[in-house]
Amino acid sequence: MAEGGGSLPVAAWLSALHLDQYVESFQQSELWSVWDCRALTDEELTRLGVLLPGHRRRILLGLQKAFVEAPPPAGTQQPPASKPVPMKRHIFRLSAATGPEHHLPALEDPSPPALGEKPPADGRTRPPLPPLPAKRHQLETKCQSLKAPPLPDRPPVLPPRAVSQRSMLGSLSPSWDPPALNPLPRLLIPSGGSSWSDRDLSLHPSAPDTFPGSSPSTLSDMMYWGFLCDMEGIGDQKFEVVTNNRNFVFRAENDADRNEWIRTLQEIAEERKGKAPERTLMSLATDSATELANKSGFLELRGFKHKLFVVVSEDKVFLYKNAEDYQLGIGITYIEMNVGNVKEVDRRGFDLTTPYRIFSFSADSEQEKEEWVEAMQQSITEALSNSEVAERIWAVESNRFCADCGSPKPDWASINLCVVICKRCAGEHRGLGPGITKVRSLKMDRKVWTEELIELFQQFGNMMANQFWAANVPPSEAISPSSGSQERRRFLIAKYREGKYRHYHPLFGNQEELNRALCAAVTTSDLAETQALLFCGASVTCDTGDPQCPTPLALAERSGQRLQMEFLLHNKTSEPPRLEMVCSEEKPYSVHLPSITHNGFLYKTPSMVKPISERKGPEEFSRRWCTLQDGVLSYYENNRNTVPNGEIRVEEIVCLVNNPLHAHGIESTFEVYTEADRLYLFGLESPDSAREWLKSIAKSFVHPCAEGLLALDFERLGRLHYKGGLTLEHAQEGWFALVGSTLHVCSEDGCRQEPLQLRKLQELSIQGDHEVLVLVERRRTLYIQGERKLDFLGWVHAIQKAAGSSGDTLSEQQLTESDVPLLVDRCIDYITQCGLTSEGIYRKSGQNSKTTSLLEALQRDARRVRLKEGEHQVDDVANTLKRFFRDLGDGLFTRRWAPDWLWATALEDEEAKVGEYRQLLAALPPVNRATLKALINHLFRIQCFSGENQMTTHNLAIVFGPTLFQTDGKDYKAGRVVEDLISHYVEIFNVNDQEMKKQQDEITAIMKMREASSSGTQQAGDFICTVYLEEKKTETEQHVKIPATMTAEELTFEILDRRKIVMKEKDYWSCFEVNEREEAERPLHYSEKVLPILHCLGTESYLVVKKQMSMENMLIYLASRVGDCKHGMMKFREERNLLGLGLSTGFHDRYFILSHSWLRLYKEVRSHKPEKEWPVRNLKVYLGVKKKLRPPTCWGFTVFYENEKHEKQQWYLCCDTQADLREWFATFLQVQNGGSLWPLEHPKMRVAQPQQDARLGNISLIPLRGNESEMRNSVAAFATDPLTLLRNV
Known about the structure:
This protein is α+β, with helices and mostly antiparallel strands. It is 32% helix and 19% strand. Strand 1 and strand 2 form a beta hairpin. Helix 10 (388-394) crosses helix 12 (451-469), helix 12 (451-469) packs across helix 17 (562-570) and helix 23 packs antiparallel against helix 24 (910-923).
């Protein structure tokens, strides 16, 4: 470029850069010579079509080199000479005439951002990348013209800056250029005594540097412009440079050179102070250097008396005198690692070899040495890497994360599996062998990355690969970026060597059919099919039967399928996955735990793999000497043996259980659970000694973040995976401690959560085939996952026991949020709904057998009992409530305070009596006080309807007095207490007017509902519903009153009559239930009742009346088919629920058989045992599948299943053709509706509706949904503000 200068044609210049592909773009933009390109910037090159960062950098470096070394073309006006000033390394001078605004911008770093680096603030993304050039050019290396021109007879010097390029680019002033002292004057510096040493001094954009004259390859010291304070002559050709922390004395060869140096340094220092008065360059660089440091610390360097502070950052190694200089930004030098090589020398020493010097470092320990060597090797890799291939492959979204663990920016790949992986997973991939996976680097293995292979990764991507390899990964076996090496190795062996999680091809097991299908697939562009066939057993070298194309590779070549050829070539020697027994290594717990020491004799039983179901006798225990030391719990035959019988590593302990006293033949016992699903039972005769062992073991395995749990007197302590709060996407590990009926939770980040009161849980259930324990509290829901069966079962049983009633006192019952026993709350709710007007309520006795069974069920688990009208009689429920209070341990008023309550009845002054009752009420325990208030409130309501139920206050007192005080009925004072409490309910319990009005309104609404129900008309159940005609629009809305008896057919005629639409013979008008969230719809059967459907509709669903276009075809199919069953292949996908259970991604081919009562799913046609089966009567089938699931065809339906326990499932089915969809759907409808899809004759008009009862007014009542408690809440809300609920109608 120096020879041609700026007049060189742009075509020849780009050809020299091996960038001929951009010649046409440059010429179209009127850029004919290099001189025309002098003002190009990075953004302008992007607009020209130079999209690859490496290509833009190559062009800008070429321009910089051209205009530093070459004069402008002939005839160009030369600018006036100006005094040279130092130039920044990253500012490219176009000519002497160009001002600051003509400088080329700083080069953009083409490498991908490091992990944890924030994206650009403007949010711009990289443009798509063009194909790679045939070969790379040498101009990608560092351009030496950025430095001051070296002397002709001296080799280039080492760059002196000790900060990264990024920090330098961001801190130098763009208008400052270095002085061109040509030739540089020689300087002498004092070297001891009266002698002087010959030195060179170079001016650098960031510092003036001195180099020994005899060894120019090493740097003696650096002085940064920001630290210069003063320069002055001191005679005899000498001058002194004063800095913040040191003074330097130099001597020039003559006074003229000395004066020139002083003048130049003073000018530069003054200009630098004006440009950057606040912060120096190195101080600005310190922050970013600290963030970018891969490793830092002190190392010994041969030739230096003291240790140096060394920093490895990206592709450079920086040397500082000490840590303070590092913070100040005062460095010695840095080493470009693209020319470095690291070699271990001895146990603590290693050499960093460069072309100009060997740096011999020594670390403090062997482990430290290995860490430094690894960090420097990574720095060399970073320096030598090329990111163009990675950028193109990362352009696919799924390729930006590791296919195995999800780490961002993976820079390795398996070229035969077509997955992009991170460095840690790549190391484990190599251990699988080249027959399984062939690992290559995206940045260093340049030769392997042909254009076809890059396109293959762009089309294939991690998403398509994982749809095959990771189709069935259980959440408990998946790995994350933080997983350890053993976890990764175990997962990758199962994933690729065994194929444990792969999506099996339907032809799996039939070698001949697999080969035939492979020969057909390679002639198409379906890479996913080829992958599935190949890794399910198809041979890549199978005989095609075609003499001209004997192999699948030849078939792909003839068909022009380049990517299929590339995929087959890389899998010529690949081994298909095979299931084999692999000895699983136990996963170590990766937290550094404190070292606890303890020893002594313990009684021990043999380890178990099943929960302890029966009491262990003393004869089953053996006395063993046990020691807890260095994180290992060892047990010996006796205290004289040196070889243990067995060991338990504390990091493998997942749970510790403190059993109740005398639970086994030994007085005090505790259980230890490990990750290997084994249970160890230990015991001691002394409870204090057992407690010491428990505390020692707990301290040794509990994470430091959960130390607060150790202070609790726990019954069970351990770690579990759970989901809760707003983070339901990923499970996190937490520490749990069960203390009585309280569950304490500590998250993995050390945050102590509010304890769960298990007896106050609203729901406690097990979901997902006994894999998830769901705990629902009023304010939160917690999902505890069972990754280890033995440990999880123990937690489930313990939590269920703690959440149930444990005794006969009030405080030991299951409670509501208001501290009222759930049993009492359920009974009161039911009687309020159904028995307020029942004559003789609480006076009549129910059936003794039913009362006994109901009381036992409520005491066992009141959450599971639902009291329903028709199933339970009012008198049975009332008798259950009375018996509960009569048998209550310690009584409602407690033995301590019951006599005082009875004594208070003797007070004649009513005010004094009420005051005494209030004091006694405050003295009761909280649960007793809340229960008494709830009961008296209920009795107060009962006596309000004494005209109907004949139960006055006095009658209620006669019944409940002996019951609550547990007397034989002879003491009349008990009845007097109850009568006083009911009569003075408002004063004693401080009930305000608002609460009383709310209760009265609630009672009034309930009575209206009951009165309307008993009158024989169903109009009280009517409510207004919005129905749409053909589509959901405002102008198509129809507001219809829906009585309980209305069918879908009648609703359809109602809408058509309103719009005066006449139904023709072939018109199949139906009412559809549309679910907007699921993007699906379901035609209602003509005889289906509408009101129950409306009760279940969510806010995202509505009803619409429109034509059912496929009904005629379905009727024809049903009339012509033989038999009642339907079978065939469909694509199946199970919905992933909130816990991440179910099939994760993709649809899977499955074989289905639909009979008159069951829908059965088989893995394949030849399977004899179904994988799943569902009763047809419990299925709801909707047409359509939501788009975000990416169904393989547009002919699918969504299926909802709900069993008798109200547990719900959801899954999706896809058919290959529309005809298949119609046939399956018609069969579903026929089976579910007894063979009738459409009425034989349509009624001409709807049956006349009964007249509305005038007593109810013109406003329809809101339906009461759910259980009794929810119905009460609905009525109360309606009574408070009727318009609020009617707005949704």
